[in-house]
Protein backbone atom coordinates (compact mmCIF):
# COMPACT_ATOMS: atom_id res chain seq x y z
CA UNK A 1 0.00 0.00 0.00
CA UNK A 2 1.54 3.34 -1.02
CA UNK A 3 2.25 5.67 1.88
CA UNK A 4 3.46 9.22 2.27
CA UNK A 5 5.05 11.16 5.07
CA UNK A 6 4.85 14.93 4.70
CA UNK A 7 8.22 16.71 4.58
CA UNK A 8 6.66 20.04 5.54
CA UNK A 9 8.30 21.86 8.43
CA UNK A 10 6.88 20.69 11.79
CA UNK A 11 4.19 18.75 9.99
CA UNK A 12 4.47 15.02 10.62
CA UNK A 13 1.41 14.19 8.52
CA UNK A 14 1.41 10.57 7.45
CA UNK A 15 -1.09 8.85 5.19
CA UNK A 16 -1.59 5.77 3.07
CA UNK A 17 -4.13 4.60 0.49
CA UNK A 18 -4.88 1.46 -1.56
CA UNK A 19 -3.66 3.14 -4.75
CA UNK A 20 -1.28 5.92 -5.67
CA UNK A 21 -4.13 7.88 -7.28
CA UNK A 22 -6.10 7.83 -4.02
CA UNK A 23 -2.99 8.71 -2.09
CA UNK A 24 -2.39 11.74 -4.34
CA UNK A 25 -5.95 12.88 -3.64
CA UNK A 26 -5.31 12.69 0.11
CA UNK A 27 -1.98 14.50 -0.26
CA UNK A 28 -3.57 17.25 -2.37
CA UNK A 29 -6.25 17.71 0.31
CA UNK A 30 -3.60 17.86 3.04
CA UNK A 31 -1.45 20.31 1.05
CA UNK A 32 -4.48 22.54 0.59
CA UNK A 33 -5.66 22.56 4.20
CA UNK A 34 -2.30 22.42 6.02
CA UNK A 35 0.06 24.19 3.64
CA UNK A 36 -2.25 26.42 1.59
CA UNK A 37 -1.07 24.81 -1.66
CA UNK A 38 -3.95 24.74 -4.09
CA UNK A 39 -2.86 23.15 -6.28
CA UNK A 40 0.54 21.75 -5.29
CA UNK A 41 3.26 23.55 -7.32
CA UNK A 42 4.98 21.32 -9.94
CA UNK A 43 8.38 21.43 -8.19
CA UNK A 44 6.82 20.31 -4.90
CA UNK A 45 4.79 17.66 -6.69
CA UNK A 46 8.01 16.10 -7.98
CA UNK A 47 9.30 15.88 -4.39
CA UNK A 48 5.98 14.48 -3.20
CA UNK A 49 6.06 11.72 -5.80
CA UNK A 50 9.67 10.91 -4.90
CA UNK A 51 8.70 10.66 -1.22
CA UNK A 52 5.89 8.14 -1.80
CA UNK A 53 6.78 4.71 -0.44
CA UNK A 54 5.27 1.90 -2.46
ZN1 LIG B 1 2.17 18.52 5.72
What is this structure, in a nutshell?
This protein is mainly α and 54 residues long. The chain has helices spanning 20-35, 42-51, and strands spanning 3-5, 14-16.
Please tell me what the overall shape is.
Answer: globular
Q: Would you identify the regions where 5 or more consecutive residues have pLDDT less than 50?
A: none
Secondary structure class reads mainly alpha
> Strand fraction band?
5-15%
Oligomer: single chain
Bound molecules: zinc ion
Q: Work out the helix count.
A: 2
What average pLDDT do the residues reach? 97
Instruction: Report how far apart the termini are.
Output: 6 Å
Radius of gyration: 10 Å
Biggest sheet layout = 2 strands, antiparallel
The total strand number stands at 2
Order of helices and strands: EEHH
As a percent range, the share of helical residues equals: 40-55%
**Count of the separate structural domains:** 1
Strand order of the largest sheet: 1-2
Any key phrases for this structure?
54 residues, mainly alpha, two-stranded antiparallel sheet, 2 helices, 2 strands, 48% helix, binds zinc ion
Topology:
Elements: E1 3-5, E2 14-16, H1 20-35, H2 42-51
Antiparallel strand pairs: 1-2
The protein binds zinc ion.
The site of zinc ion has 7 residues, from helix 1.
Amino acid sequence: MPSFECFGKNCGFHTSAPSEAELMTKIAEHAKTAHKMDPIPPDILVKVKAAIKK
